[in-house]
Specification:
The chain is an alpha+beta fold and 151 residues long. Helices cover 21% and strands 33% of the residues.
């Protein structure tokens, strides 16, 4: 299996009412997150990576124009437990943030190999539930990009 590229996307999926979709990692029970994934060699653009990851992880089919590119990236240290997935010496990842607004009630179909559960939470509760600080920060920034109405 080839090494993962240290370039990834984070896609915060939410409703107009301010509910955020979180998915629980299959390999780390209790680790809740938004959609994330590394850019593949075949992905020419980060938007393609984001669309692929949304489809693979949630079953949600989004069009390119449905994604909002925040023009925001985070550089963070890769958790030691996952460093074996990257080339030797790679310790940091650059994560590019996107969001996707979907109607309330949008069906979710998880990739069982990657995730074991999903839930919709109010955006503030979702931020508190995330294990990743950059994911939590992105969720808290939703109110800057959208006029979300709390449920």
């Amino acid at each position: 299996m080839p090494y993962k590229r240290p370039i990834s996307v984070l896609v915060v999926i939410h409703t107009p009412e301010g509910c955020v979709l979180l998915i629980e990692r299959a390999d780390q029970p209790g680790f809740w997150q938004s959609v994330t994934g590394s850019q593949d060699e075949a992905d020419a653009h980060l938007r393609q990576t984001a669309l692929r990851e949304v489809r693979e992880e949630t079953g949600i089919m989004a069009a390119p124009q449905d994604l909002l590119d925040w023009q925001l990236s985070n550089v963070y240290e890769i958790y030691p437990v996952w460093r074996h997935r990257y080339a030797p010496g790679v310790t940091h990842n650059t994560e590019h943030v996107f969001s996707l607004c979907v109607p309330q009630g949008t069906p979710v179909v998880l990739s069982a190999a990657e995730h074991r559960a999903w839930q919709w939470l109010d955006w503030r509760e979702a931020a508190d539930a995330c294990f990743s600080p950059s994911n939590a920060e992105a969720i808290l920034l939703l109110s800057r990009f959208y006029d979300i109405r709390s449920v």
